[in-house]
Design a protein that fits this description.
This protein is an alpha/beta fold. The protein contains 19 helices and twelve strands. The protein has a six-stranded mixed sheet, with helices on both faces.
């Protein structure tokens, strides 16, 4: 049952690979043609060699025959010229074939990587949240590289190997049927060896790829969180975890390599049997004058050429097993269900007023654990809505739902009277300016990072936004100012500087609605006071959602929503909520409590 399942999986993967190869069928046809020409020329060479041997035998042992030695020498030089031409043509056809193979493989790999990255852009956030980022990276990078290596070896050796076997049999049959029969009888042994190894190696190489992905995930995680690891003295524990995964990778790699390494010695043993069989039967035929010495030389050469492809194909099959195992993992990613596409009649938000309504909204990340239940909220245009509550109460989840990073399980969220499922994602998200606690900066210049939401912004607009966010002063001190190139995730910039750049990014695009999720958490108190004033100006007339733990920063909000366990338990402005002396009052007063 397991074998049938594995074979079925391999066939499915192979069919998918062939679909990616289909656009390059002209190159494929040219490859096959060059393989045929190359093999025919290669097989013609032993015939010329045999003729040359027979002519040399006549020269040194004419056996009393009245022959023209000078004519034989002239014929011998003619054969040598032919051999030189055949060798040059063979090299040229093999070069053309290799060029075509490389073009096919790297075009296919480019298409697969592009498709995989495109699917990453389309996948819902719940997939990315539920899967290790390191494993995803391993699929797109390492697995595709392994697949490319296997495919390249397959194309280079598989076609020529098959054509060589068929061609050699044809040439041998034309010379001597009996000796050819000996070769054919021994052949199934090689096929049995190749089949046995192929069955064993696929699952092993798949396990190797999965474990490698697990290792990449750990390394990726540790690089990104090395400060935390060192701060909590977790180096030894982390090393133990790495050693455990590395040990498993060593075991499954050794098993895969062991079985794949059986290929060469086993096939060489079969090759020796074939060569021995041809040598013995051929020698007897020469003694009985059924073959000439030149023909025996030709046959021995064919015996080598006939068995060599079996050796190569067995190795190719092992590489293809690895390639197909890696391909299966990348196709799993490509075939993941993408996020629900926008409807064909989806509305494009324009001239946004900022009226937001949540009607009986329920949502949970996992079905068995409820988070938000029957949430109702009506936000008027231009209102400032602060969301507060203990950790895990659903504050950031509401932001995810408003931006449609996740879709609600039931109920509806509407903007300006249109349900967000009926609005294009692009226009919905463009209508929000978002500053999160976790900053994101790409590799590029300071200006590139600020203009993410408005690529056509002028230098004057960029500087004005930076001054409003109080980022201009530190940007000026950088080596090249706004043209300073920063590394991935901000490089050597401080946490506060990164956050200032993210705030500048929003201030530049100035969308009709704002989401500020702990937007000033990494900024010093003095700068925060200045930015809060800038935010107040920016939020004027714009619907704004503010998530904050420091309640002193949201006292001027029009409405404060107090959340607990996914429900709004209190609602009102700062004074009203303090007067109620409820949960909000306790949260607020706890900030000033002396431990």
């Amino acid at each position: 049952m397991k074998t049938e399942k594995r074979n079925s999986r391999q066939k499915e993967t192979l069919i998918k690979v062939l679909k990616y190869i289909k656009p390059y069928r002209f190159l494929m046809a040219l490859t096959i043609l060059m393989a045929v020409v190359s093999v025919v020329l290669t097989l013609y060479l032993p015939i010329l060699t045999g003729d040359a041997v027979d002519r040399i035998a006549f020269i040194f042992d004419p056996s009393g025959l009245n022959v023209d030695v000078s004519a034989i020498w002239a014929g011998l030089f003619g054969i040598l010229r032919k051999m030189g031409i055949v060798i040059l043509l063979t090299a040229f056809t093999q070069w053309i074939m290799n060029v075509c193979n490389n073009r096919i493989v790297y075009n296919v790999i480019q298409d697969i990587r592009k498709k995989a990255f495109q699917r990453l852009e389309e996948l819902p956030l719940k997939y990315l949240d539920a899967h290790s980022h390191g494993d995803i990276v391993s699929r797109v990078v390492a697995d595709v590289d392994q697949f490319a290596d296997g495919l390249l070896i397959g194309f280079t050796q598989l076609f020529t190997g098959i054509v060589t076997i068929l061609g050699t049999l044809g040439f041998m049959l034309s010379v001597n049927v009996g000796i050819t029969a000996v070769v054919v009888v021994i052949t199934p042994v090689s096929l049995f060896v190749a089949s046995f190894i192929a069955k064993k190696t696929f699952s092993m190489f798949k396990q190797q790829s999965e474990t490698r992905g697990e290792q990449t995930a750990l390394i990726n995680e540790m690089i990104g969180n090395q400060k935390v690891v060192q701060a909590f003295n977790r180096e030894d524990e982390t090393l133990e975890t790495f050693d455990e995964i590395n040990g498993r990778l060593e075991k499954c790699s050794l098993r895969a390599i062991f079985f794949s390494s059986l290929t060469n010695p086993c096939t060489r043993f079969v090759n020796s049997l074939v060569y021995t069989g041809v040598g013995l039967t051929g020698a007897l035929a020469v003694l009985n004058r059924g073959l000439s010495v030149g023909q025996l030389t030709c046959f021995l050469s064919y015996a080598n050429q006939y068995t060599k492809p079996f050796n190569e194909i067995s190795g190719v099959i092992t590489e293809l097993q690895n390639a197909l195992a890696c391909a299966a993992r990348i196709f799993e990613l490509i075939e993941e269900e993408p996020q629900e596409p926008d409807r064909e009649d989806a509305v494009i938000l324009s001239d946004v007023k900022g009226q937001v309504e949540l009607e009986n909204v329920s949502f949970s990340y996992v079905p068995e654990k409820n988070l938000i239940e029957n949430l109702n909220l009506h936000v008027k245009p231009g209102q400032r809505i602060a969301i507060v509550g203990p950790t895990g109460c659903g504050k950031t989840t509401i932001i995810n739902l408003l931006m449609r990073f996740y879709d609600v399980d039931s109920g509806e969220i509407a903007v300006d009277g249109s349900g967000i499922r009926e609005i294009t994602r692009k226009s919905l998200r463009t209508s929000y300016g978002m500053v999160l606690q976790d900053t994101w900066l790409k590799r590029g210049t300071i200006r590139d990072n600020i203009t993410v939401g408005k690529p056509d912004a002028s230098q004057e607009e960029v500087i004005a936004a930076a001054k409003a966010s109080h980022a201009h002063s530190f940007i000026k001190r950088l080596p090249n100012g706004y043209d300073t190139v920063i590394g991935e995730d901000g490089g050597s910039l401080s946490g506060g500087q990164k956050q200032l750049l993210c705030i500048t990014r929003v201030m530049l695009s100035l969308p009709p609605m704002l989401i500020l999720d702990e937007a000033t958490s990494s900024i010093d108190t003095r700068t925060e006071i200045k930015i809060q004033k800038a935010f107040a100006v920016m939020m004027e007339g714009r619907t704004s959602f503010i998530v904050a733990h420091r309640l002193s920063t949201i006292q001027n909000a029009d409405v404060i929503l107090v959340m607990k366990d996914g429900h709004i338990i209190e609602q009102g402005n700062h004074k009203e909520l303090l007067a109620k002396n409820g949960f909000y009052a306790k949260l607020y007063n706890s900030q000033f409590a002396i431990a």
